[in-house]
Write a structure and sequence with these properties.
Distance between the termini: 30 Å
Strand content: 15-25%
Radius of gyration: 22 Å
Strand order of the largest sheet: 9-16-10-13-14-15-17
CATH superfamily: Nucleic acid-binding proteins
CATH topology: OB fold (Dihydrolipoamide Acetyltransferase, E2P)
CATH architecture: Beta Barrel
Number of domains: 1
Largest sheet: 7 strands, antiparallel
Number of helices: 1
CATH class: Mainly Beta
């Protein structure tokens, strides 16, 4: 992983920091693994704007990712490491021994030509997917299932990882990227290693237009709105408008919105850090 700081030949490049893409080995995706990716622009079926700050953006196709890793016991060879415009992590094109090709989330250190495998016979090497019951304690993991067979839902973004802390009975204790420690069934799968593109957090866009390319429209601060538009609007001059809150009046910055009767509360050992 590496980043490049560009020379200031234009105002937009003065502070620009870009990804080196030194681990990327292909510039065109596998056509059979692409799907349409239609944008809503933040509008519902009647054309009414229901989500603010969305719209525009560069046209892109969705890469079909194998989050389930359910081809157990069949070795797969890594063919390419590719950029995915739909996510912060890089993806890997793997070819299984039976000829099928799939995209998987790439881990740091995954190399072209490397063989990966999932299921009970796998070893705790980078890129392999195993049951939490078979992974050694203290191992760094990512792409974790929350329910058996569901597919990876936790620790999937660039540079994220979790740690397997303990096992007791049918539950494993996992420390998640947020700092939360929770219990997950040992029959759930996880992939060994840290998610690739860990330098993503170091990137600097350099200009507002790059946000527009990503489909993000300008955001207006609530304090400068009128009272009819936001609870924090109105006032003379730079008056702050009271306590910070959302457009619907829900307080921000410390107000807990999680239900006290939520079913998964009993699986959380330690809440995430504030």
């Amino acid at each position: 992983m590496s980043v490049r700081k560009l020379k200031a030949i234009t105002p937009g490049q003065r502070f620009r920091v870009v990804n080196g893409f030194d681990t990327i080995t292909a510039d065109k995706p596998e056509r059979n693994l692409l799907a349409p990716n239609k944008r809503s622009g933040g509008r519902n079926n009647r054309g009414k704007m229901t989500m603010r700050h969305l719209g525009g953006g560069h046209k892109k196709k969705y890469r079909i990712i194998d989050f389930k890793r359910d081809k157990n016991g069949i070795p797969a060879t890594v063919k390419t490491i590719e950029y995915d415009p739909n996510r912060t992590a890089f993806i890997a094109l793997v070819s299984y021994k039976d000829g099928e090709k799939r995209y998987v989330i790439a881990q740091n250190g995954l190399q072209v030509g490397q063989t990966i495998i999932s299921g009970e016979g796998a070893t705790p090497d980078v890129g392999n997917t195993m049951l939490l019951n078979d992974i050694p304690l203290g191992t760094t993991i990512s792409c974790i299932e929350l329910h058996p067979g569901q597919g990876a839902v936790l620790a999937r973004s660039a540079g994220s990882f979790a740690q397997l802390m303990a096992r007791e009975g049918k539950y494993a204790t996992v420390k998640l990227p947020s700092g939360e420690t929770r219990m997950i069934l040992v029959t759930c799968k996880a992939t060994i290693g840290v998610v690739s593109n860990s330098d993503h957090q170091l990137l600097v866009s350099g200009k507002a237009g790059r946000s527009r390319w990503l489909g993000r429209r300008p955001r207006v601060r609530p304090v400068v709105m009128n009272p009819v538009d936001h609870p924090m609007g109105g006032g003379e001059g730079k008056s702050s408008g009271g306590h910070p809150r959302s457009k619907n009046g829900i307080p921000a910055k410390g107000f807990k919105t999680r239900s006290k009767t939520k079913a998964s509360n009993k699986y959380i050992i330690e809440r995430r850090k504030k």
